[in-house]
Amino acid sequence: MIPFNKATVTELEAACVADALQTGRLSGDGKYTAKVYEQLKQRFDFNNVLLTTSGTTALEMAALLTDLEPEDEVIVPSFTFSSTVNAFLLRRARPVFCDIHPDTYNMDESLIEGLITEKTRAIYCVDYAGIPCDMDRINRIADEHGLFVIEDAAQSIGSTYKGKYTGKLAEFTCFSFHETKNYAMGEGGAIVFEDGKYLDRAEIIREKGTNRRQVLKGWVDKYTWYDIGSSFLPSDVLAALLYAQLERYDEIMARRVAIWNRYHEGLKALESDGKLQRAFVPDYVEHNGHMYNIKLPTDRIRTGLVEYLKQQGIMAYICYVPLHSSPMGLKLGYRPEDCPVTEDCGARVLRMPLYYDMTDADVDRVLEETDRYLRSAL
Ligand SMILES: Cc1ncc(COP(=O)(O)O)c(C=O)c1O
Q1: N or C, where is the chain less crowded by C-beta within 10 Å?
Q2: Would you say 145 and 136 are in contact if contact means Cβ atoms under 8 Å apart?
Q3: How far is the C-alpha of 152 from the C-alpha of 179, rounded, in Å?
Q4: Domains of the chain
């Protein structure tokens, strides 16, 4: 059986979690939260980083920090997880769906300007499969029109765009440390922003709208309600888990990239024979090995391959169902033909199993079975 994903947990994770439990401090912002900030700042040179309870809530915090209001418009791809859009829909801002590139499956920057109206306030872009968007172009458009850029980097921690890490590319960056991501704390995430002017308010929003963090720091002796907010601060026990994962940063990254490369090399012949399209990485990107995806010639072939692999005990996953043509998207007034490339990719893209403990023999088995099915079906 080759699952789609499996978390990597070693004695180090167990030891750090046990240590966090011993401290008698189970809520957030304790010893391990501070240690994680040190790791992230050292490795990526982040100016301001706050852990959150999920990637989803990091995206919600960005919507609060940018003061999105009812009827504001936000340009966003439809080929993403519901969280990217729910984040600002909760503020009653409206999604304006932007179609994607047929190779990276990221937002097509050339379409953004055509979607801007006087109500547009922000662009939520998504780094699909750990591949950063063309951030120079997106930031340039945002600057010209006075828009916020929020990068949904749930999948792209450790990837670079023109040599710069995600987290350094947009006004706000939101990461996920969910079990399915490269570095996991079970459920968790982080919001990162370069400009320190957001820090005080972000800490208040994360603590139910109060200045509780200032009390914990000993700066004031009682806490007060200052702003809108929610419970976005994760337990220090989960931060201990993430600390251990980040201590293993290089080995996890190297193994994932090696698996990615093995898939890429192993699928070359099928691509040359016109049976699939392999994952694509633009030359300005170094990726983090988050996901290996392929595009099949038709929806029917994809469904057939998923079924066949399942019979062989291999779990491949179709990834995103486009949001604009989902029941919620239709309720918002969208039609499938509004984002034709997304609709097409949504029916044909397949995500292969990829996790740290996957052996070369596992990858080879997926490759062999994929080859067997596609050569008989096509
Ligand atoms: C692009 C994207 N955004 C947001 C999320 C939500 O992250 P989380 O599960 O940490 O809430 C995911 C999760 O899979 C994602 O893929």
Answers
A1: N
A2: no
A3: 17
A4: 11-247 (3.40.640.10), 249-377 (3.90.1150.10)
Q: What is the dihedral of CA 322, 327, 330, 336, to 10 degrees?
A: 40
Q: What is the pLDDT of residue 204?
A: 96
Structure confidence at residue 217 as a pLDDT band (50, 70, 90): confident
pTM to 2 decimals?
0.97
- Integer Cα distance of 321 and 259 in angstroms: 25
Evaluate if residue 210 carries a pLDDT over 90.
yes
Give the per-residue pLDDT at 213: 81
d(CA 53, CA 156): 18
Residue 184 has pLDDT above 90, yes or no: yes
CA of 377 to the centre of ligand 1 (A): 34
* Closest-lying ligand 1 atom to the alpha carbon of residue 178: 10
- Distance between alpha carbon 72 and the CA centroid of its chain, in Å? 24
Dmax (CA) for the chain in angstroms is: 72
Q: What does the alpha-carbon distance between residue 286 and residue 158 come to, in Å, rounded to a whole number?
A: 9
Q: Which of 176, 238, 320, 323 to mutate to test the pocket of ligand 1 (most atoms within 8 A of CB)?
A: 176
Kindly report the number of other CB atoms within 10 A of residue 69's CB atom: 12
